[in-house]
Amino acid sequence: MSKAATNDDGEDDITTVTFKLTESFLDEIDDTWQGRGFNSRSEFIRYTLRDAVEFPTFDRDELVALLEAEEDIREGRTTSAEDARERFGTGDE
Length: 93
Fold this sequence. Notes:
93 residues; mainly alpha; elongated
């Protein structure tokens, strides 16, 4: 896939990108963009990709850490904020 180039007026050139989807997934995409009021499939896909780039979700390591923290809470392997402040010598600042 190529990156968008900037032309002389400072605007990005539009590049066509081709990819493959199953017909059933494309049907779901079409139902979604139409149901959410987008003007076209392309507009919806651009919006979705831009959102994924600007607001990425957790990566695998972060999800594993969250699951481990949840397990620690369930198993009672946690420390209260007061105990942590005392242990590490920090005050209520």
